[in-house]
Design brief:
The chain has 167 residues and is mainly alpha-helical. It contains six helices and three strands; from the N terminus they run ααβααββαα.
Length: 167
C-alpha cells in the first residue's frame, strides 16, 4: 500500500501526539520523583533548578530575577514564590543590583551552597543514574540533541511572530 500525503500526515500526527504525551508524563514524573529525591533537604524540583542555575560560574555575582526566569523558562510570577521560600530558608540572598537599583540580584548563600554541594547534588546524581538506567552515552547524547531541537522550535512558538522579527 503506497504512502499518501494524507496517510503520512496522519502517522506523523499520531507520533507527535504520543511524543508530546510522553513528554508531559516525563515532566510530571520528574517533578514528583525529583522532589522526592531532594525532599529531605527541604527542596523541590523548582528549588533544585534555581540552585542549579545559581551554581553556574556565570551566576557567581548574582543573576537578576528576569534573567533567572528566562533561563529557567518560567514566569516571573511563578519564580517569585519560589525565591521567597528559598530566601526564607536561607538558600539564596536577594540584593539590589548596584547597576540598576530597580533590579534585584539573586545569589546562593553559603548555607545554600553547602546544601547544594554536600546534600542535594549527591542525591540528584543518584537520581540521574536511576532515571537513565540502561541509557548508553550515545542514547543520552542523542536524547539531549533532539530535546534541544524541540526546545528551540518551542521557543519560536513562545516568542510569537512579532517577537521573532525583533529578535
Amino acid at each position: 500500500m503506497p504512502f499518501t500525503p494524507e496517510s503520512t500526515r496522519a502517522a506523523r500526527m499520531e507520533l507527535a501526539n504520543r511524543l508530546f504525551f510522553r513528554l508531559y508524563q516525563c515532566a510530571n514524573l520528574l517533578h514528583k520523583t525529583g522532589s522526592r529525591a531532594v525532599e529531605s533537604e527541604g527542596l523541590t524540583t523548582q528549588q533544585w533548578a534555581v540552585l542549579g542555575a545559581l551554581s553556574r560560574p556565570e551566576s557567581a555575582g548574582g543573576i537578576s530575577v528576569g534573567d533567572l526566569a528566562r533561563y529557567l523558562m518560567v514566569s516571573r510570577q511563578n519564580l517569585t514564590g519560589v525565591i521567597s521560600r528559598m530566601e526564607r530558608d536561607g538558600h539564596i540572598g536577594v540584593a539590589p543590583d548596584e547597576k540598576d537599583r530597580r533590579s534585584r540580584l539573586i545569589s546562593m548563600t553559603a548555607h545554600g551552597r553547602k546544601v547544594w554541594l554536600e546534600q542535594a547534588l549527591p542525591k540528584i546524581e543518584a537520581y540521574y543514574e536511576q532515571a537513565l538506567d540502561e541509557f548508553s552515552m550515545g542514547d543520552i547524547t542523542h536524547t539531549l540533541h533532539y530535546l534541544l531541537k524541540l526546545l528551540e522550535n518551542m521557543k519560536q512558538l513562545d516568542n510569537g511572530p512579532d517577537e521573532e522579527a525583533t529578535a
